[in-house]
Every structure is written in structure tokens, then in C-alpha cells.
Amino acid sequence: MTEGPSTPSVLDTTVLSNFAYIDQLWVVAGIADICTVPVVQSELHNGVESHPYLRSALDVLDETIPVVSISDRVANREATIGTQLDSGEAQAFAVADTRDGRLLTDDGDARSVARAHGVTVVGSVGVLLAAIDAGRISEATADEWLSTWIDEIGYYVPYRTIAAYR
Questions:
Q1: Going along 84-145, which residue ranges are E strands?
Q2: Which tens digits make up the pLDDT trace of 35-94?
Q3: Which tens digit of pLDDT belongs to each residue from 106-151?
Q4: What confidence tens digit (pLDDT) does each residue in 72-88 have?
Q5: Distance (Å, rounded) from C-alpha 149 to C-alpha 69?
Q6: Residues 118, 162: Cα–Cα separation, whole Å
Q7: Are the CB atoms for 8 and 70 separated by under 8 Å?
Q8: Backbone dihedral angles phi then psi of residue 144, each to the nearest 5 degrees
Q9: Rounded CA gap, 152 and 42, in Å?
Q10: How many other C-beta atoms lie within 10 A of the C-beta of residue 153?
Q11: Are 4 and 70 in contact (CB under 8 A)?
Q12: Distance between CA atoms of 163 and 166, rounded to whole angstroms?
């Protein structure tokens, strides 16, 4: 584990899981100041048996996506928000909040809590949009990936095409 970036982009399990499912973790690994937290690492580890594709997410942690150490300040913030979120989202939120970072999640409750506390939130669709804008993927590729999430893993979003989010 590492201290991580000073203003991190903190991944929770949902975004990591989506990109692991389509075997495209390089997209999230390329986000500036990306990291995740120990509880998310544990959630991925616990989910590998029923969702083998999560193994690839575990494989990129530490080497490509740092798992940050949890300071007392983060642990205290996590404890105050822990009744509102599950443990992975609470810990990821706490790191983003205490370090002036942003939270990368698709979880509705985590998104609401983060916004209520002034923490920037980005979901899987936002990651796709940023990758298109950076020239890393095409809009057609993003549409394919979004369709795969919707059709195969039950990802819920209001629109089926990236163009609808612009």
C-alpha cells in the first residue's frame, strides 16, 4: 500500500468491476492520480469466485492502480459516513473527501452522499466520455462497451448511447 496522490481519483468496486468485465482496465488505469482503497481490494478478492473477471482488477492493483494506506483522518471520516454507505464506498468517499479528490463510483447512494458533501463524482459513463475526449477510444467503442454492460451485467443508465450524454 502507498500514501497515494495528494488529490486522488478514488475508484470504488463498481467502476473497477465494469471495466474488468470488458477487459479494458487500461482505461481506468490511465486516469490521472488514480487509486483505490483496501476495502475495495478486499471486495474484489471476495468476489472473484463468483465473478472470475474480477481477477484482472486485482492483478492491476498496487502495480498500476495504487491501493492507498488509510490514515487516522480518513478512518475517522469513514466512520462518520459508514452508516450511510457500504464499506467500500465509505472508504473510497473518505479518501476523496479528506484529500480534495474525486470519487469514481456508479453507486447511487455514494454519488448522493458525495455530492451532498461537495465531492466531485464520476461514474463509468463519465470515464468513457473522458476517454473519448482524450482520444483514447472512439465513441463507437464506448457505445459497444456501454451496451455490453447494459445487456450482460444489468448496468442501469438512462441512455444506451454515449451521444445522449453530451
A1: 102-104, 120-122
A2: 999 999 999 999 999 999 999 999 999 789 999 999 999 999 999 998 899 999 999 999
A3: 999 999 999 999 999 999 999 999 999 999 999 999 999 999 999 9
A4: 999 999 999 988 999 99
A5: 31
A6: 26
A7: no
A8: -60, -50
A9: 24
A10: 13
A11: no
A12: 5
What cell was used for 11?
475508484
* Grid coordinates given for 67: 491501493
The amino acid occupying position 125 is V
Residue 155 has which C-alpha cell? 448496468
Q: Tell which residue, 7, 25, 4, has the closest CA to residue 127.
A: 25
Specify whether the CB–CB gap between 119 and 103 falls below 8 A. yes
Radius of gyration of the chain (CA): 15
* Matching residue, cell 479518501: 95
Residue 99 to residue 7: CA distance in whole angstroms: 5
